[in-house]
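Students often ask what a holo structure prediction actually looks like on paper. The answer is less mysterious than it sounds. You provide the chain, you provide the ligand, and the output is a string of discrete structure tokens encoding the 3D arrangement of the protein together with 2'-deoxycytidine-5'-monophosphate.
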Amino acid sequence: MEKTYAVAIDGPAGAGKSTLARLLAKDLGWYYVDTGAIYRTVAYYLRLLGISPRDADGAARYIDEVNIQITYDPQGVQHMWMNGLDVTEDIRTPEISQGASLVSAHPPVRRALLEMQRDLARRHNVVMDGRDIGTVVLPEAAVKLFLTASPEVRARRRHAELAAKGKKDAYDQVLSDLLRRDAQDATRAIAPLRQAPDAVLLDTTGLDIPQALAAMRAIVKEKTGL
Ligand code: DC
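The corresponding structure tokens follow.
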């Protein structure tokens, strides 16, 4: 099999990972894999079954029942399929954000999704974003980035994103949800949110999208020559 390249991008919620990872992937002509969307799909599935995201036994019992597929439309947008149903839009709610953070702490859930993520990276050049990509999923990635930004800037971005979809969540609520999720993701026992020792830290607080993208592109060039 041909050698594939991976850019692993980790960081807290709202650091700009998905926007920047998508643009970087487009620029490189590689696949963009949003791994948070996979955890969100699991959270959505368990919620449909009426299982609490805190219920570790419930998650363990049903994780093998769900069929999760990832496809890409001609615009390169990643679509998430749950048992044949396109749930791409349904998984983008604050409730599912929180649910995904909770279900992602259960070891059987992480185990089940690990191989799916590694398989994508074996078959394609990928820009993959999440919380444990550089540390656990793709420890051999050619490029590792850890994106961060101040909590206020991250909450402002998330608030604007929700507003653009017509959702009127209060800024304070968005900020407190984000902080709670960061704390959960960073303190769980398995694969916590952490910067890999060999990851490059990029603070996007004072950067706009083109500036952050240029910085990332330069790091990829330096590490891979591509
Ligand atoms: O990136 P996101 O906000 O869509 O992710 C939703 C949740 O999924 C996040 O709070 C924690 C979990 N997650 C994870 O544990 N590991 C990943 N690689 C990606 C996401």
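DSSP finds nine helices and eight strands in the chain.
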